[in-house]
Design goal:
The protein has about 140 residues and is α/β, with parallel strands linked by helices. It has helices at about 15-25, 30-45, 90-100, 115-120, 130-135; strands spanning about 5-10, 50-55, 60-70, 75-80, 105-110, 130. The termini are far apart.
């Protein structure tokens, strides 16, 4: 596999992030419209940050992304996505490191999907799940 680079997301990345996030929610109990609405709220939250992995020669070709927030000393992993053919190549772990995950004292996650599951198995031992509403309402640190 070709090398990739990590960078902060750009405004034109948000449509791809939103569509892949809403389409790939694992155990979401609700309609696709409800999923899209929840994803939009998470993306619009003032604390939400996105990092992406892309091809070095084509930074618009996104291989994966990670949505997160830093709330006090807590790292909130909102969701992570890596294209199927790039899974098992360290993309998610690289994104987590680029986002500052190793320095966080406490990690929680909100939404579950295949990439989030893989990160929990390999890099996020002891991570706790919280309901997305807690993040969206600003009560994560509670």
């Amino acid at each position: 596999m070709t090398n990739y680079v990590c960078r902060a997301a750009r405004p034109n990345d948000q449509a791809y992030v939103a569509s892949t996030w809403a389409s790939n929610l694992g155990k979401f109990k609700g309609t696709r419209r409800q999923a899209a609405s929840l994803v939009d709220k998470a993306l619009d939250h003032k604390s939400t940050r996105i990092v992406v992995a892309c091809m070095p020669h084509d930074e618009d070709h996104i291989l994966g992304w990670l949505a997160f927030a830093q709330v006090s000393s807590m790292f909130v992993l909102l969701y992570a996505f890596v294209r199927l053919d790039w899974r098992q190549h360290g993309v998610a772990r690289s994104l987590a490191e680029f986002a500052g995950l190793p320095a966080a004292e406490l990690v929680v996650y909100t939404f579950e999907g295949p990439t989030t599951k893989a990160l929990r198995r390999t890099a996020l031992h002891g991570v706790q799940r919280i309901e997305p509403a807690k993040y969206l309402e600003g009560s994560v640190a509670s």
